[in-house]
Amino acid sequence: MKNGSNLKLFLLPAVLFVILLFLPAFIPRFYVYILAVIFVTALLAMSLNMVVGHGGLFQFHHGVFYGVGAYAFALMITKAGLPMWFCFIVSPLIAAIVGLLIGWFCVRLTSLYFGMLQISLGSLIWAIAFRWYSLTSGDDGIHGIPVPDFISSTSSAYYFILIFFILCLICMYLIYRSPFGSTLEAIRDNPERCQAVGINVRLHQLMGIVIATFFAGVAGVLFVVLEGSVFPDMLFWVFSLEIFIMCLLGGWFSFAGPILGAAIIVSLRTFVGAYTEYWTLILGIILILLIFFLPEGVWGYILDKFGSRAKGTVEGGSK
Amino acid sequence: MLTVEGIHKSFDDFKAVKGANLTVEQGELVAVIGPNGAGKTTLFNLITGQLRPDRGRVVFHDDDISQLPPYQICRRGIARSFQIANIFPRLTVFRNVQVSVLSQQGKSWMLFRPAQKLAVDETNSILESVGLLDKAGNAAGALAHGDQRALEIAIALGNEPELLILDEPTAGMSAEETTATMELIRRLADSRGLTILFCEHDMEVVFSVAQSIMVMHQGLTIIQGRPDEVRNSREVQECYLGGAEPC
pLDDT tens, A277-301? Predict the structure, then answer.
């Protein structure tokens, strides 16, 4: 029985991967681009969900770390002229260091206060990107960031992003199933009890934030690879809210939920946004329905309905 | 092993504990009794670091632990259960106990090994000793009250403590459940060589099980001694038992 469920666990992602591998040959370039946007956004939402869904932290300003990763990458290439591979490795680390600094203050507070402090500290970073014109070009952002030829076309960028997206997902999945991930979930459920079994709750949460912000930094770099530009809106708190909604929408107690949430929001923004600038109105209505009818999110609902999950548990949701 | 010396704690103007003393010797089964609001739970919270004392010392193996955070106190060998079942409701019973076993083994930080395969034997043996092995896969939040209390103790055992502190382990239990739980506690003390400190409302239970009893009243320690000493103490009868002969 165990083998059967394991096989099922790997079969679906494997089939999906093969489809995604060959898809760019058959669909118009625009859709390839949209898919790549979905991967980047999904990676960002997944990284947020590590701390929100699995860690129970109110990480309200996750967009900052995405933006820091992207800006670090863009600035190191355009201003410092450093080699791309170096920038590619260092930028997520810079995002993680900023995550460490902000997180170091935030983990001292709980629940909403954690979130409020993070919005404040994150907004400081946004203000730097927005105001320091000589470095970041302020509101205009930085455009035409040169990327190597082999990833400059849409379909090659697509494959590049797909590979890193999947690598990151595998890493996240391993972390999610590791003792660290397990402990993080226990902290989410009952921090007081975790203290009493000898777990340094704050340090664990901080580590969770650092890992999550690292992956957000990776997403930021991939964004630059795809778009060739950065702008301060990436660090604005409204965007952070949108990522948060992706987690809620997809299902924040399941592993793969945020991917679905990101896909839904990106599609809505692209396809409904083309008809009306009031696409957020539709998003709002969807959210209201979600809260009433699918409190576990869309993916949570699918797992609940069709998945052969262990009875009585909501844990163990997989891709 | 553990000594509490003249400990004080107040919340705003309310003095919850104002001079509690307690001695726990290796291998003993020590009970703290006292009416509601006597400060028993506060005393336990002070020992295990959930609260910090305003005054006084908590000495464990010659070290003052009164200013340490809970997780460090736990690592020194004091584990506890809580009065209100304080478990991880969304996790399975197995994972509830595994969390503390992993913490004890210093494996909480492992990032890329699957947790499923770690500490399985240890966790299962603890679940077996408290009679929850057949429910290992259930969600902890869905357990019956009595089972949740047993799980509460199982989580504490995961830390392989020297000293186990149980805050009213039989709260809200029927007479049979109470007997079964006390039987379990006595068995654990014997088989694992545990020193146990617990507080309890049921007089009969306390006097039948405990080797040493400490009586608290309005935040003060009145007496600590063997059951017969406590039973015959005039002060205890006046303050706590209302002059009536216990049992």
Answer: 888 888 888 888 888 888 888 888 8
pLDDT band for B138, please (50, 70, 90 cuts): very high
Extract the residue ranges of chain A whose pLDDT is less than 70.
Answer: 1-7, 307-319
Residue spans per domain, chain B: 1-77+161-247, 87-160
CA gap B220, B41 in Å, rounded: 13
Contact list, B99 vs chain A (CB under 8 Å): 182-183, 186, 194, 197, 199
CB contact under 8 A, A315 and B90: yes
Asked if residue A278 is part of any domain, the answer here is no
Residue with tokens 């506060």: B42
Measured between beta carbons, the chain A residues lying within 8 angstroms of B72 are: 198
Nearest chain B residue to A191 by CA distance is B88
Region for residue B226 given its phi and psi (left: phi exceeds 0; alpha: psi -120 to 50; beta: otherwise): beta
B194-229: pLDDT as tens digits: 999 998 877 778 888 889 999 888 888 888 988 888
CA distance B79 to chain A (A): 7
In a domain, A81, yes or no: yes
User: Which ipTM score applies to this complex?
Assistant: 0.86
**What's A133's DSSP letter?**
H
Query: In chain B, which residues have their Cβ closer than 8 Å to the Cβ of A313?
Result: 90-92, 137-139
* CATH level 2 (architecture), domain B1-77+161-247: 3-Layer(aba) Sandwich (3.40)
Contacts of B103 in chain A (CB under 8 A): 183, 194, 197-199
- Rounded Cα gap, residues A151 and A148, in angstroms: 6
How many structural domains comprise chain A?
1
Is the CB of A185 less than 8 angstroms away from the CB of B91? yes
**Would you tell me which residues 216-275 of chain A have a C-beta closer than 8 angstroms to some C-beta of chain B?**
253
Domain containing residue A35: 24-235
Listed residue (B60, B33, B11) closest to B20, CA to CA:
B33
